[in-house]
Amino acid sequence: MTVLLAHGAGAAMDSPSMEAIARALADEGLRVARFEFGYMAARRNGQRKPPPRAETLIPEYRQAVEALAGEEPLVIGGKSMGGRVASMVADELFAAGRIAGLLCLGYPFHPPNHPEKLRTAHLAGMKTGALICQGTRDQFGTREEVAGYALSPAIELLWLEDGDHDLKPRKTVSGFTAADHLRTVGEAVREWCARLAPAAG
Questions:
Q1: Are 113 and 70 a contacting pair, CB within 8 Å?
Q2: Beta strand residue intervals within 15-85, DSSP E
Q3: Cα–Cα distance, 111 to 47 (Å, whole number)
Q4: In this predicted model, what pLDDT tens digit does every residue of 89-134 receive, in sequence order?
Q5: Rounded distance, CA 141 to CA 113, Å?
Q6: pLDDT tens across 14-41, in order?
Q7: Contact 79/51 with Cβ under 8 angstroms?
C-alpha cells in the first residue's frame, strides 16, 4: 500500500511533524510518498507566498496522484490542509478506481476560534473509506465538537488523548508521549489499510 501525503498550510513536506508521521507509517511497512504544493515549493526559493484557498489546490493534488500512476492500491491524504484538499478530490478518484482510501492527520474541521465556520459539508456524503486521526484537544476540532457533526459512515475517527493539531499530547496531563501517539497512528493506519486492500482488489 502506498500513502500519498500533502503538507499543512504553514509547514513544508519535510517539516518535523511530516517527517515523524512518514517514519511512523514506514515503520509499519507502508510506502510513503510526499509532495509540496506550488506555493510552498516557491518558499524554498525565497518567495514568501501565503497559502491559497484550499479548493484552488485540487488540480495540484490530482497531478500528484497522476505522478504515482501504477502505484496501487493508493491512499491519499495529508496533514491538516493537505488532508482537506485530498478529501475534496477523494470521491472523484475513488469512483474512478484510482484510490482505495483517504487518510487525514489533524483535519481542520473549522478555523481556530471559529467553530461556526465548518469545513464539513462534503464529508457528510463521502463514499470513500476514510480515517481521520485527531487529537482530542485539537483547536481545529475537538472530540466534543466533532461528536456533533454530520459525518459519513465511511469515515472512521481515531482519537488521540490530549493530542493537539500535531497530535502531540502533554505527558504530564495524559501520560502519553508524542512517540506513543505516533506508534498508535502507525498501527491503526496499517490495520485500516489492510481492511481497504481487499476492496481495492
A1: no
A2: 31-35, 74-79
A3: 25
A4: 999 999 999 999 999 999 999 999 999 999 999 999 999 999 999 9
A5: 10
A6: 999 999 999 999 999 999 999 999 999 9
A7: no
Q: Which residue has the cell 495529508?
A: 78
Closest-CA residue to 163 (of 189, 188, 143):
143
Q: CA separation (Å) from 2 to 12, 72, 93, 111, 185?
A: 20, 7, 15, 30, 16
Handedness of CA 32, 15, 108, 190 (dihedral sign): positive
Q: Which residue has the cell 502506498?
A: 2
**pTM score, two decimals?**
0.95
Residues 6+ apart with CB under 8 A from 102: 75, 76, 77, 83, 86, 87, 90, 94, 126, 128, 129, 130, 131
Q: What CATH topology corresponds to 2-200? A: Rossmann fold (3.40.50)
What's the CA gap between 21 and 186, in Å, rounded?
A: 8
Helix pair angle (81-95, 58-67), 10° resolution: 60
If you write DSSP's letter for every residue of 127-174 in order, what string do you get? Answer: -S-EEEEEETT-TT--HHHHTTS---TTEEEEEETT--TTS---HHHH
Task: Give φ, ψ of 90 to 5 degrees.
Answer: -60, -50
Taking residue 106's Cβ as centre, other Cβ atoms within 10 Å add up to 29
Give me the residue spans of the domains in the chain: 2-200
